[in-house]
Protein: Cyclic pyranopterin monophosphate synthase
Organism: Seleniivibrio woodruffii
Amino acid sequence: MSLTHFDEEGRSRMVDVTDKNETVREAIAAGFIKMKPETMDLLIEGKMAKGRNVFEVARVAAVMGVKRTSDLIPMCHPLFITKVDVYFETDRANSQVDIQVVVKMAGKTGVEMEALTGVSVAALTIYDMCKAVDKDMLIGGIRVMKKTGGKSGTYIREE
């Protein structure tokens, strides 16, 4: 397997997808943001100074991040995204918010980068809205959980 974002002389390039078949493509990415228990309580109770519903702001930010991925990642193709779902699950035992983003479209290239960007932007937004009370938050575990469509078919992460 070779790296496709470089030509024979080592110059970077955007991969040519002109001759690829359009298929329905979906990617699911996940990650988390860990925080102090007191921060988790404020977040769940809607008592953050920057806004009562941090999750809805982070959800909108994730969708915006998905749509702007090609502006952030140099070799990503601009895509016509047809679906974005963002899920948050609070885990009080571990004092963290688990984030999942699902991205779907029909096209010639996958949407893994878009899903990963959505998770990242959601986590960063939660950090931004909670940093006044907790600068020690940790963002991590950002990964592709599942990908379907395209020549390589289905990938499901084994954890």
